[in-house]
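Worked example 2:
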Amino acid sequence: MSERQHWGILSPQLPAAQIAAIARSWEQKGMAGAFATQVYGPPWSALAAAATTTSELGLASGVALAFTRSPFETACAAMDLDRMSGGRFVLGVGPSIRSWSEGFFGAEYGKPLAHLREVIEIVRDVVAHAHTGELTGYEGTYHRHDWSEFQPSPEPVRTAIPIWVAALRRPLIRFSAQHADGLIGHPMWSSWWLQHEVGPALDAALADAGRRRADMHVNLWHWVAPTKDIRAGIDDAKATVAFYASQSQYEEYYEAHGFGDVARRLQKATPAEGFRAAARHVPDDMAQTFVHVGDPDDIAAALDGEWEIADSMCLTAPLGAPPDRAAGYRALIADVLHRPS
């Protein structure tokens, strides 16, 4: 495995100047890249701001929701960001969950693997051929495009932009090995899940696809609360777990870890109370299963074995922590990142 690479997460809700300054500081510290999330609006604006003050930092959507816009628009945004950054953009994309696509955005979800396959096919076609005059059309189950009157676009920086797919369970892990250039691990992946589900599923899928492990990039996301105050760290981790475990589509995942009853309780409590208040339903052992809590050296040691799978990692502080402790976690994450391997 190559030198360990670390990524950070930019919030699109910050002012542009602050985003640009954070990105510049990460590049100066030697970090490999920066993700921008999509929870409300699309991730493109934060990445554009980051591109203005950096020259080497990788920039990736983490993740762009695959079904909430036309794949043609996604491809055009990807080419724009790749142009702005001088060829540093990675399109991180995923189906997310049905309630987000259909409920929040009013967009069809359908069968997510088949739908995502169409999105990736269209994005790759547009990136490769929008400038050549060779785009004709696409007829799929979810998307139909007629480019007969399309005029060629400006030539892109690259005719193939890397696509990383976000995954939680085996079907999307297999999909990424077959159709993507990289895999983004779900931030709720536990160490047990990574060892017993992710690793074997990825190895088998790559073998079936006739690909080598070196053919794709694996980026692992983790929520971490580096602290000597373990009680406070566990308490701060609970809101993050409540946020994810309240999603009914994830119930099977939490059931596999023995927390199905808690997940069902959170599905009822969180919509009424909000995930921060519902955090009281999360037991300590559940919080520690899905969020790394402890001394920075201990967290770094716990993550050491995961580098057998990971090419890069993205560590971030828990959602909902009080501002002072959240700032403390972010400061101590640097100690985790720079601990000698």
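The two ends are 12 Å apart (CA to CA). The chain has one domain: 5-228+296-337.
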